[in-house]
Amino acid sequence: MAYQYGQGQGYQQPQGYNNPPARPPPPNPNQPNLSQIFQAVDKDRSGFINAQELQSALSNGTHIPFNEETIKLMISMFDSSRSGQINFENFQRLWAYINQWQQTFRGFDRDNSGFVDQNELAQAFQQFGYRFSQDFIGLLMRKFNRHNGKMAFDDFIQCCVAVQSLTSTFASKDSQRKGQITVGFEEFLSMIFSVRT
């Protein structure tokens, strides 16, 4: 797979106003009621939230529960102990991260439907610095949407994080930044299966 950096197709460092959140922000102690939200969803009072508890705390704005795969992905991103749970500090970071994604998503959901369509998704990736073909955008839509050709907020997060992770993995093998890599089959599979999606 060949990618031309900044030459019409492929990946480059995302630039611009609506960049996807690349890494978790520091916790913001001024977040309103986060402690109350955390305590309300920590059903077993363990001081940690698991994926099921987190799912009950989140809404994608369409009255449809957050995608279970997206929840697991976010838990894994913020689970510093690798226990499958997050504490309050990591919950604060996760909440800020979701809010950043929500602002990004709203910027591309031009009709305020709570979904992005294939054209809006293409515009999002173009704004992020990617140059993907319509065929590839269509593949992303088929892979990550659960809503008749439209992508909800939670699916959008999962899609973008998957593309970011795959881009980072690809770039780590492309030491000369040519937009091309040569890998063996097992290494290719290792690259794919080690990525968070």
Q: Secondary-structure blueprint of this entry?
A:
Blueprint lengths: L33 H8 L7 E2 H7 L10 H11 L6 E2 L1 H21 L6 E2 L1 H10 L6 H11 L6 E2 H21 L11 H9 L4
Antiparallel strand pairs: 1-2, 3-4
Helix pairs in contact: 2-3, 3-7
What fraction, in percent, of the residue positions are helical?
40-55%
The neighbouring-strand order within the major sheet is: 1-2
Structural class: mainly alpha
Percent of sequence in beta strands: under 5%
Total number of helical segments?
8
Which architecture per CATH?
Answer: Orthogonal Bundle
Distance between the termini: 20 Å
Number of domains: 1
Please count the beta strands (DSSP E, at least 2 residues each): 4
Uncertain runs with pLDDT below 50, 5 residues or more? 1-18
Order of helices and strands: HEHHEHEHHEHH
Report Rg: 18 Å
Index terms:
197 residues; mainly alpha; Recoverin, domain 1; two-stranded antiparallel sheet; 4 strands; globular; disordered N terminus; calcium ion binding; metal-binding; cytoplasm; calcium-dependent protein binding
